[in-house]
Protein 1
Amino acid sequence: MAVLDWKNKNWKFKLGLLMVLLSLIFFGLLVLIPMLDIKREQKIWFTTFSFITAEVLFYTGGFLLGKEMFNKYKSYLNPLNWFKSLKHNKSEKSLDR
């Protein structure tokens, strides 16, 4: 995987990537909120707030990143694509022998 050259990236790209990464934190909170020892109404409020915030951050960050970069990072976050590259790499290694 190529390393990003941060010095050549503009502020929109950096802000967009930061917003997409922050959205992952809010999506992660959705898993933890039901385990908190707080009232049911507060859980509902925190879950709703976390979900809406995560969606807004994700799509706004995607808008700032641009269509190509947004689709690239979106495919990284899709669990169905996580193991496709591993299978592809294993098949290449077996062909090299």
Note: The radius of gyration is 18 Å.
Protein 2
Amino acid sequence: MATRDWKHEYQLQKKRGEDKDQIERQRARRAYDKKGVERSGKDIDHITPMRKGGKSTPGNTRLRSRSSNRGDNK
């Protein structure tokens, strides 16, 4: 499995104008993938929502079913 240059990818994301929240979500996905966690069919839930200043740190994220996560975020 080839590794990706995440620093380079981050610079490209900034150039494309992707917002900070998109980049934070990607950071959370990469953290779960690095641990080898199977997350298909699940959403990464931020315990303290990003809109309220929450970050994509291991202590602030958890995997939840899509219906549960999206039901809470209305």
Note: The chain has three helices and two strands.
Protein 3
Amino acid sequence: MPGQARSRPSPRSGVWLSLILAFQFCVEVHERHSLCITSSLGFSGWMEVSSDFPLAAALLDRLTHHCHVLLFQGKSYRFQESRERLTQTAASVATTP
């Protein structure tokens, strides 16, 4: 929540370790290589998931420096296809004697 102090995640936390590794990777490739990242989270979602605001902010700063952000809105084709497969599977199981 805004205005509340966040506790620093444990160094043994999987989320914290993943964030550290992602930051180190971005530091290594920053302005030397192209990088494409896809996410179903918006920028604010990264802050909520990370629980380490300064590190997440630094990571996003590196990722968004000289970047092109493409926002796609609408239904996910993968989600729609998986839902159709589940419906077909359920229908075939229901009609099997």
Note: The radius of gyration is 19 Å.
Protein 4
Amino acid sequence: MRVQILYTYAYLYKALMLSLMLEDILSLRSMRDTCTSDDIFRKCNSVLTDASLSYKLIGVATDGSHITIGNKKDFQVRL
């Protein structure tokens, strides 16, 4: 099974007297062998590091799988 994760980011764009909240695609990464919460966290950390971004997160959107929510070792807890 091949899993792909799409990373997006939102930012505030200010120009003249106009402020817009924009969203862009940051990266699309494949999970090759396993897809545990540790694997997802390491991949996310790699994407943020490569883009020189910090963990100033407002929210996380997932598919609701047990790997990403509802456990002491899940992805959202680690963030």
Note: The chain has one domain: 3-78.
